[in-house]
Design brief:
192 residues, alpha+beta, 4-stranded antiparallel β-sheet, 3 helices, 32% strand
Length: 192
C-alpha cells in the first residue's frame, strides 16, 4: 500500500473513531407524540422513564400542561415557565380560541414551555422564584443570588402545537367552551 493510501485509510479510521466517540447519550433526548381530547378528558404520556406529560382538564374551559415525576405531584413545568402572573403558555383556555375575540390564539399556535426533571431542581426553582417574585425586605444581593440559581437550572423544553380545536356552539353572552382539541407535543430533555 502506498503512503498516500495509508494516510487516507488512517484519516478515515480517525473520522470513524471520532464519530463513534460522540456517543448518542450526549445528544439531547427527544420525544414526540400526538393526541386528541374531548372536553373534560385527561391526557397522560410517560417519557424519559420517570416523567409524565399531562393535560389536566378544567371542565369545558380548557387544560393545563403539566410535567410531573413518578415520585412527585409537583408541577415541574409551571415552576419554570414564565410569566408567573397572568396567562401562561401552560394554560390552554377556551377563550383563547373564541372567534368573537380578535385577540384569541389560533389553533396552530405553539405553547412553548420549560420543565425541570427532578424534585431537587423543583425545590431550588421554587425557593428562587419565591425570592424573585416577592423580594419584600430581602437585599438586592439575595434577589440576584436567587436569579442566578433560577437561571442556572437545567431545564428541558417542550412545545405543544394545537392542530385542531372544536368549540361548542357559541351563544351570545356565554363564554366559549371546548368540545375537543387535537395536538402534537415535542419534548427535549436537558443534556445529561
Amino acid at each position: 500500500m502506498s503512503a498516500q493510501h495509508a494516510l487516507r485509510a488512517l484519516g478515515l479510521a480517525a473520522i470513524a473513531v471520532s464519530t463513534l466517540g460522540s456517543s448518542p447519550s450526549h445528544a439531547p433526548r427527544r420525544y414526540h407524540f400526538e393526541g386528541r381530547l374531548v372536553a373534560g378528558e385527561r391526557f397522560e404520556r410517560v417519557f424519559a422513564d420517570s416523567l409524565h406529560f399531562l393535560l389536566r382538564p378544567a371542565d369545558h374551559e380548557g387544560w393545563s400542561i403539566v410535567v410531573v415525576g413518578d415520585d412527585s405531584s409537583a408541577d415541574f413545568a409551571g415552576i419554570v415557565t414564565p410569566p408567573f402572573h397572568g396567562p401562561n403558555p401552560t394554560q390552554i383556555d377556551s377563550w383563547h380560541f373564541d372567534p368573537r375575540d380578535s385577540s384569541g390564539a389560533s389553533p396552530g399556535d405553539d405553547r412553548g414551555f420549560s420543565f425541570v426533571t427532578n424534585r431537587r431542581d423543583y425545590a431550588s426553582a421554587s425557593a428562587a422564584l419565591d425570592v424573585m417574585l416577592w423580594p419584600n425586605d430581602r437585599t438586592d444581593a439575595a434577589v440576584d443570588s436567587a436569579q442566578a440559581v433560577f437561571d442556572g437550572l437545567r431545564t428541558g423544553s417542550g412545545a405543544l402545537k394545537i392542530t385542531r380545536v372544536k368549540l361548542e356552539k357559541l351563544e351570545a353572552g356565554s363564554p366559549a367552551r371546548f368540545d375537543s382539541l387535537s395536538f402534537e407535543v415535542d419534548l427535549i430533555l436537558p443534556h445529561p
